[in-house]
Amino acid sequence: MFEKLDHIGIAVKDLEQAMTLYREAFGIGPSLVYESSYTKAKIAFFTIGESRIELIQPTNPESLMAKFLEKRGEGIHHISFKVKDVDSSLTELQGRGIELIDKKARKVREMRR
Asked: For the whole model, what pTM was predicted?
């Protein structure tokens, strides 16, 4: 089912502080930083080999990410895999009892450099 690990999404309270940590501790800068009106978050991607780390800071206290941070604190929010057929993979995983963020495929169109 999985072709590769695409990215790991990490919820953070302060994106600038988290980006500084990655720059200083790991010697890497973001490959993409943008704000998403869809998810109501500021997002930074750090490319590591063929995968990426996604740092996500909510911009709206009512957003899903803000509620996640309030309930669970900073840390891993999601793991994203590349698959051949998104909808059938989601159906299969849900049938196995895996908690999903999305039940159907969606396209993210907002990524800006």
From this structure: 0.85
Q: Going along 12-110, which residue ranges are E strands?
A: 32-36, 41-48, 51-58, 75-83
User: pLDDT 10s digit of each residue in the chain, 113 long?
Assistant: 889 999 999 999 999 999 999 999 989 999 999 999 989 999 999 999 999 999 999 999 999 999 999 999 999 999 998 999 999 999 999 999 998 878 888 776 545 43
Chain centroid to CA 27:
21
| Helix count and strand count (H, E) for the chain | 3, 5
Residue identified by tokens 């929010």 is 77
Cα 97 to Cα 26: distance, rounded to the nearest angstrom: 35
